[in-house]
Amino acid sequence: MGFPPKREISGKDCVPPESTGRRYEAVLRLSEALSQCRDPEDLTRILSEQLHEFLGFLQFYIVVYKERSTEIEWAVVGREKRLIPGYADVPVQQRPSWQAYATQEPFHIQDWSTDPRVPARLREGIAAQGLGVGPLVFVPLTTPHRRLGALGMSGSPGTVYRDDDVSFLRLIGRIVAFAIDDNFNLRLVEAARAELQRQNDLLQRSERELRDVIERIPSMAWSAAADGSAEFFNRRWLEYAGLTADQAKGMGWTNALHPEDLQSLLEYWRRTLATGEPGESEARLRRFDGEYRWFLFRVTPSLDDRGGIVKWYGTNTDIEALKRAEQALRHSEAYLAEAQRLTRTGSCAIDGTSRRTIYWSEEMFRLFGFDPRQGPPMWEQWMQRVHPEDRDRLRLASEKTFLEKVNCDVEFRIVQPDGTLRNIQGIGHPVLGPDGELVQVVGTMVDITARRRAEEARDRLRQLEAELVHINRVSTMGELTASLAHEIKQPIGAAMTNAEACLRLLDRTRPDFGEAREAALEMVRDARRAADIIDRVRTLYQKGSSQLAMVDLNEIIREMVVVLQNEADRHSIAIHTDLADGLLLAMADRVQLQQALMNLMLNGIEAIRNTAGQLRITSRLAEDDQVLISVIDDGVGLPAEPMERIFEAFFTTKPQGTGLGLAITRSVIESHGGRIWASANAERGATFCFTLPGRRTVAA
Fold it and tell me: What is the CB neighbour count within 10 angstroms for residue 520?
């Protein structure tokens, strides 16, 4: 696991490599600072100073319990003393610090309001202080020979602690535990300070005191003779490896090395002895329980007055968490590369000043057909892959991003080396420095060729659907030719009768102008009636794109009753309407709704034609401002097939049917945000219902 950077809520999955070294150095600095700490109250201050860059926290807590007791030996709460009263009435065994101390496992509260492990008294005590609390983590403070207590860290509301945060805090807990064990007498703190001061004074007088300090520092330390033969290992080292001092001396310590790392570390050690320079290397070291963990081996020579090497001093630092973080980073990079390959998405970065390409992902090279071994191409090389017709547009979008420091989103085509044409969507984002200067532009390039082809295919499909709808309309109106001819013939015949009457009235010896005028007006009304019928039929023949407007659904129902009345009369079918009061309005395409309603009414007439029944159309305002239209017949009923199949294209039970009427009707209704369904009536016949988003207005 890695050491996460300080943040509130981070979207990063892993620690950048440059941050890892700083964290490692911070751990070393923390170890050194803790080894010099003489006052328990300084512990949380040192933690805050050394770790503020790497963990998001409000403060640290240190609680030390008396051995084999629930009584607190001493505690350091940090700067927020107001939190102390919140714990006053909470039994020790219910406190987060005791949970970590007793179980020797981290105790992590992410959400105080939902975590059932939070004691009710503690929640009430914190609330009484009026404090907004974030997550809380306690880890055990333990040395190989004693459990000391717990180290806690709290964050501000909104902070999220990940597993690697907890692992990092647990590592810090080990270092703090050794510092407490070494530097403070748990019962007589003042006496410990005096003893440590005395040891520091003696440190400069003899090598014996120096070894004593090395024994006590919270780090695995060792020393070797000038020829590299190990002479001394501190207690930390021996306890970790499970070796005695005699077993580790000389080259005995190599028995604790992982067999795969033995030769490489010995070669490094021989080279270091030959050069006489400080050095460092990494290898796995076996713990007393048999587990191998990665360690950083550091060594520094001690020189005499003539520059000769007297001794070698070294430390071993556990970097297992760091190695795991590096491995996780490699896995993350591999997953990212695979994800980019699967989605055909490349990423890149361009320097904000020089405009030099500083990063190209593997998918960028594949996408644009460049050789990764030659490195990222120059800008002009890359532009040569862009389709000539799109280069100017891409240049303008890029210039705007660099000059105005704004995002860009541009689509363009590229021509790959084999001549393949691809559609690309490029997105650029400027990264600004503290003073607003442009540091770099990061971007993604997505191959959207498949999407564009799908959109073109979808457009062609929509066009074909529109053609099919129009053909269905024309076909349906063709079937109604006889009925429409009769419907038009009536007003035309009436107009002729009125015209003859008008002539007779005018041809009299004494022309009756009043009656002639009435006959002429009747003739005009008959002509307009015929024109209205023709207009209604002509709209159904029209071909064009959808035109949305607020339409009166009751009016559409009445129009279609007029158009289909003669067809119903031919089969002795009575058409009745039951329309809601007021105006039922919906945003819709008038012609498409006329066709949908006509299809349902014709379907009902077809079902009744041999039974001399009746067709009923109703309208009402349903829940949620939905307009409900029902077409009810008492015909032969629905087929035995599953109900949903009757709306499938080309499904029909009629010998001469096309199977398109109900499918087109459903398409029209759903395209208007509605839904359609059918159900069998209790006695006989069927009911087809559809809803549309609408609203009811009361006529003035």
Answer: 17
Alpha helices of 344-448 — where are they, by DSSP H?
Answer: 362-368, 379-383, 391-404
CA distance linking residue 406 with residue 429, whole number of Å: 7
Distance CA 611, CA 573 (A): 9
Q: Which residues contact 125 (CB under 8 A, 6 or more apart)?
A: 85, 86, 87, 88, 89, 90
Same fold, 17-190 and 344-447: yes
Structure tokens at 210: 């120096």
Average pLDDT, the chain: 79
* Three-state DSSP state, 78: coil
- Tell me the C-alpha distance between 99 and 227, whole Å: 50
**Residue 617 pLDDT > 90:** yes
Paired residues of 426 in beta bridges = 410, 445
Q: Residue 658 pLDDT more than 60? A: no
Token match 């039994």: residue? 91
Q: Which residue has the tokens 């009911």?
A: 687
What is the distance between the alpha carbons of residues 363 and 349, in angstroms, rounded to a whole number? Answer: 13
CATH class of domain segment(s) 219-323: alpha beta
Q: Return the pLDDT at 615.
A: 92
- Give percent above pLDDT 90 in the chain: 13
Asked if residue 258 has pLDDT above 90, the reply is yes
Tens of pLDDT, residues 545-600: 556 788 898 988 988 888 788 788 888 889 999 998 876 788 888 878 887 888 89
Q: What CATH code is assigned to 17-190?
A: 3.30.450.40
Question: 344-447 adopts what CATH topology?
Answer: Beta-Lactamase (3.30.450)
pLDDT at residue 12 in the model: 38
What pTM does this model have?
Answer: 0.32
- What secondary structure does DSSP assign to 155-207, as a single string? --TT----HHHHHHHHHHHHHHHHHHHHH--SS-HHHHHHHHHHHHHHHTT-H
Residue 414's φ and ψ, nearest 5 degrees, are -125, 155
pLDDT in tens, 471-520: 555 555 555 555 555 556 666 766 776 777 777 777 777 887 787 787 78
Q: If you write DSSP's letter for every residue of 446-484 in order, what string do you get?
A: EE-HHHHHHHHHHHHHHHHHHHHHHHHHHHHHHHTHHHH
Does the pLDDT at position 90 exceed 70? yes
Count of residues in the chain: 700
Query: Among 355, 351, 292, which residue's Cα sits nearest to residue 318?
Result: 292
Residue 187 has pLDDT above 70, yes or no: no
Looking at CATH, the fold of the domain delimited by 547-700 is given as Heat Shock Protein 90 (3.30.565)
Domain-wise residue ranges, the chain: 17-190, 219-323, 344-447, 480-545, 547-700
CB 312 within 8 A of CB 223: yes
